[in-house]
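hiii, so i know i said id send this last week but things got crazy w the move. better late than never?? heres the sequnce for the chain we talked about at the cafe, plus the structure i predicted for it. fair warning i was half asleep when i ran it
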Amino acid sequence: MMYIRPPTADDVGFCCDLAAENWDLETADRCHLQMIESFKKGPYSPVFGILEMDGRPIGFAAFEPSMLMKGVFNLIWLAVHPQYRDRGAGKMLIDWRFDEIKKRGGQMVLLMTQKPDYFSKFGFFKLHHTGNEWYLMLKLLKAVNL
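okay and structure toks below
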């Protein structure tokens, strides 16, 4: 059975290794810095969730409050070990983030992704194609009061 829990210092290596496998070493370094920041629990610190199965981590996701405006959040990480993909792990991590963001008064969610079709299934729509492999996407969680 899979469940999501808060990270511990022991999870940093797993998350950074998975980030390196999915992207590159520079991205893994950013993951490391963001995980360290998450442990500080400041008002704009990232919030990580570790997906665990049978007592071991198999994936992780994170989000952070945006400095753009109140009620806006950024999705910053979603990674699942290749052995556990196509089993609902990514969906579970996405749903967890939406639930946590709503608890924090979230109204809008932004993300940058190379997989826009995947995120479209969760209600995101494309705002901008950056001209390379990346897309800026948005999802409204409720009516936004500007």
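btw The radius of gyration is 15 Å. thought thatd interest u
miss u guys!!
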